[in-house]
């Protein structure tokens, strides 16, 4: 029985090997700036045109920063009203080339995509999305990414102001999970409620991190993932507003021109390359390896199918070999069902991805915590939640007020939970406990498709997806 989907819950059973997590690596802090000179402000005015064939490339507009510079302000002007769209970011002299994760030369200093027309960065502070800190002399790049180019091209101007005011304070990072302890839960693993995908004004969201923390608490969450587009700037700041009882996990939504994927469980100084296309070297493979092997996180495909108003947001890389996949993005619609169907197809091929949910909150009407992803973790820590995801100990429910417990028994064996392996032969008994799901029907998805389950189901015990349908 395959029922029209208005789902309030997804849960997975899967067999998955345990992966030890390397400690999250950090980039070295940059050396302090040389003593500032007392120079006048420098104004640069750079203009150019991007022809249509530059679409989806990433361009460096180089400018020279002399010793003693302590602040950089960039204003970008272009013919946006004609229909053009030009993303913007900043790289420092450590290098603009594609970062392959094999050395620490990435010069990334911020990205705001199409969300900002101007930004400022200094030793002490920066516009949201940009990384404050010492300003090394050398060739910097304003990064530009033509995203929509009309036949007449994009005519652009960059007004760059270099300041030389003396520096008396340096930026103090306050990492997002700084307040949470690392002890394992003394009572054993616990199911923690969270939201895996949230934006703020550190990229293109309409709210501040302080607002988001309040929404997360109102939704009864115990953890949330900070996942701004292409920048780690919020990860350096969230600790300032983090309450004692909310784990704010460190992530980046890696926003490529061929779809969005998410790195979660990284360090606050970690950044993930996004400027490759299918077939590039270094490319997606290198970036994934960097997250999984060095940064200690998991990698997840976000909203593989999404509505027409988001161009270049569907997943169009041929690579589906990820730790996880976002099956439920914001309010449920047919594109989420498409993600579930793809997930099943991948599992049939032997690719065991963990199914996740995320609100992808930018602005209402989407709500933080809708859907809520519930992860079984040994502690309320980043590493423990990442481990829970890698072990597929994950349930997704509609939001606050919804919950599910489930247990599978083989004979008189102890209860086996989501993510655990069922050992043994013969009949299995499935027990469900639900909260907030009156009037729902359960169905099981397995190798051969989806079947309704009245009282008994016969199936291959290799993997199942349990799905509760609400009407
Ligand atoms: C530096 O410039 C400021 C004004 O811009 C001036 O007041 C100050 O005297 C100058 N200091 C030196 C050492 O020249
Ligand atoms: C920048 O340069 C362009 C082209 O030379 C000129 O049209 C524009 O007025 C300049 N803008 C500023 C603020 O100086
Ligand atoms: C780091 O890697 C990049 C790209 O592979 C390369 O261009 C650069 O020279 C390397 N830098 C160092 C210090 O090895
Ligand atoms: C900079 O951007 C802000 C909005 O982000 C805008 O209010 C302001 O006018 C802009 N400043 C300049 C000089 O373009
Ligand atoms: C840092 O910059 C932000 C906006 O760019 C501003 O709101 C804030 O007041 C600044 N903080 C300090 C300490 O200057
Ligand atoms: C993305 O995929 C969805 C579902 O297949 C489709 O409706 C939509 O048109 C696609 N978007 C774009 C921009 O191609
Ligand atoms: C759900 O069903 C239970 C048991 O029948 C009942 O006590 C509860 O009030 C119902 N809840 C809702 C929201 O209908």
Automatic annotation (TrEMBL):
Gene Ontology terms for molecular function: 5'-3' DNA exonuclease activity; 5'-3' RNA exonuclease activity
InterPro entries recorded = PHP_domain, Pol/His_phosphatase_N, Pol/histidinol_Pase-like
What's the domain of life for this entry? Eukaryota
Question: What are the boundaries of the signal sequence?
Answer: 1-25
Write the record's keywords in alphabetical order, separated by commas: Signal
Q: Which residues form the Polymerase/histidinol phosphatase N-terminal domain?
A: 194-258
**tRNA-binding is among the record's keywords:** no
Under which name does UniProt file this protein?
Polymerase/histidinol phosphatase N-terminal domain-containing protein
Q: Which organism is it from?
A: Piloderma croceum (strain F 1598)
Taxonomically, what lineage is the organism? Eukaryota, Fungi, Dikarya, Basidiomycota, Agaricomycotina
């Amino acid at each position: 029985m395959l029922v029209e989907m208005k789902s309030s819950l997804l849960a997975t059973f899967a067999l998955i090997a345990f992966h030890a997590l390397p400690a999250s690596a950090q980039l070295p802090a940059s050396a302090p700036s040389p003593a500032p000179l007392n120079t006048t402000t420098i104004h640069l005015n750079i203009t150019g045109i991007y022809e249509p064939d530059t679409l989806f490339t990433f361009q460096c507009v180089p400018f020279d920063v002399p010793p003693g510079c302590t602040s950089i302000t960039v204003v970008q002007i272009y013919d946006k009203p004609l229909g053009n769209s030009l993303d913007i970011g900043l790289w420092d002299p450590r290098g603009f080339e594609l970062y392959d994760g094999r050395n620490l030369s990435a010069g990334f200093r911020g990205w705001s995509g199409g969300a900002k027309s101007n930004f400022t960065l200094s030793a002490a502070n920066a516009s949201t999305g940009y990384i404050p800190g010492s300003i090394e002399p050398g060739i910097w790049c304003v990064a530009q990414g033509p995203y929509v180019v009309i036949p007449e091209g994009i005519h652009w101007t960059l007004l760059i102001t270099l300041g030389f005011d003396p520096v008396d304070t340096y930026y103090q990072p306050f990492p997002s999970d700084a307040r949470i302890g690392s002890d394992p839960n003394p009572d054993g693993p616990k199911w923690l409620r969270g939201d895996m995908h949230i934006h703020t004004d550190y990229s293109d969201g309409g709210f501040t991190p302080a607002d988001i923390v309040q929404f997360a608490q109102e939704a009864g969450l115990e953890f949330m993932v900070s996942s701004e587009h292409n920048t780690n700037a919020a990860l350096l700041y969230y600790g300032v507003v983090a309450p004692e009882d909310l784990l704010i996990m460190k992530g980046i939504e890696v926003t490529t021109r061929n779809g969005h994927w998410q790195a979660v469980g990284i360090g606050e100084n970690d950044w993930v390359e996004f400027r490759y296309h299918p077939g590039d070297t270094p490319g997606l493979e290198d970036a994934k390896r960097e997250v999984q092997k060095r940064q200690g996180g998991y990698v997840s495909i976000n909203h593989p199918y999404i509505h027409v108003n988001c161009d270049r947001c569907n997943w169009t890389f041929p690579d589906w070999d990820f730790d996880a996949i976002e099956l439920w993005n914001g309010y449920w619609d047919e594109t989420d069902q498409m993600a579930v169907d793809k997930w099943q197809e991948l599992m049939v091929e032997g690719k065991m991805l963990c199914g996740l949910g995320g609100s992808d909150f930018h602005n209402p009407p989407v709500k933080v915590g809708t859907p809520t992803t519930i992860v079984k973790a040994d502690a309320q820590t980043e590493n423990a939640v990442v481990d829970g995801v890698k072990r597929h100990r994950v349930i997704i429910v509609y939001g606050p007020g919804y919950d599910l417990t489930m247990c599978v028994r083989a004979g008189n064996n102890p209860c086996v939970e989501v993510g655990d392996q069922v050992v043994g032969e013969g009949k299995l008994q499935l027990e469900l406990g639900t909260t907030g799901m009156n009037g729902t029907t359960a169905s099981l998805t397995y190798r051969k498709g989806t079947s309704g389950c009245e009282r008994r189901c016969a199936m291959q015990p290799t993997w199942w997806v349990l799905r509760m349908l609400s009407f």
